């Protein structure tokens, strides 16, 4: 399927949908971003049921700031509208596959219960 360009206009609508959405925050001047890009694209081809989105932090500075991006590349994973993973740094292909499998294996009822507990204990 390939990746989808995410902007301030479509980011929230994309990450809050059902299923898994992986988001790569990147910039063209960033060497590690350029090395991670083909790994991300190839994973997108292997997993057509997952949305692979890319946020260009140069053109979407407000979105990057709102997402609290401090270093790039940063990979975020959303499942059923919930942020379940966020990590800066370029991942090798096998590590990205491990993240994808871990996100697939999540018990979302447990995740939501844990989030609910945390929000009521504040």
TrEMBL record:
<keyword id="KW-0676">Redox-active center</keyword>
<dbReference type="InterPro" id="IPR036249">
    <property type="entry name" value="Thioredoxin-like_sf"/>
</dbReference>
<dbReference type="GO" id="GO:0015035">
    <property type="term" value="F:protein-disulfide reductase activity"/>
</dbReference>
<comment type="similarity">
    <text>Belongs to the thioredoxin family.</text>
</comment>
<dbReference type="InterPro" id="IPR005746">
    <property type="entry name" value="Thioredoxin"/>
</dbReference>
<keyword id="KW-1015">Disulfide bond</keyword>
<keyword id="KW-0813">Transport</keyword>
<dbReference type="Pfam" id="PF00085">
    <property type="entry name" value="Thioredoxin"/>
</dbReference>
<protein>
    <recommendedName>
        <fullName>Thioredoxin</fullName>
    </recommendedName>
</protein>
<feature type="domain" description="Thioredoxin">
    <location>
        <begin position="1"/>
        <end position="105"/>
    </location>
</feature>
<dbReference type="InterPro" id="IPR017937">
    <property type="entry name" value="Thioredoxin_CS"/>
</dbReference>
<dbReference type="GO" id="GO:0005829">
    <property type="term" value="C:cytosol"/>
</dbReference>
<keyword id="KW-0249">Electron transport</keyword>
<dbReference type="InterPro" id="IPR013766">
    <property type="entry name" value="Thioredoxin_domain"/>
</dbReference>
């Amino acid at each position: 399927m390939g990746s989808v360009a995410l902007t301030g206009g479509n980011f929230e609508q994309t990450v809050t949908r059902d299923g898994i959405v992986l988001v790569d925050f990147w910039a063209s001047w960033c060497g590690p971003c350029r090395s991670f890009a083909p790994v991300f694209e190839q994973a997108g081809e292997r997993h057509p049921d997952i949305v692979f989105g890319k946020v260009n932090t140069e053109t979407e500075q407000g979105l990057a700031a709102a997402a609290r991006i401090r270093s790039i590349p940063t990979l975020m994973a959303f499942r059923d509208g919930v942020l379940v993973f966020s990590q800066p740094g370029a991942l090798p292909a096998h590590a990205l596959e491990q993240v994808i499998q871990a996100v697939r294996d999540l018990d979302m009822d447990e995740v939501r219960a844990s989030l609910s507990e945390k929000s009521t204990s504040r």
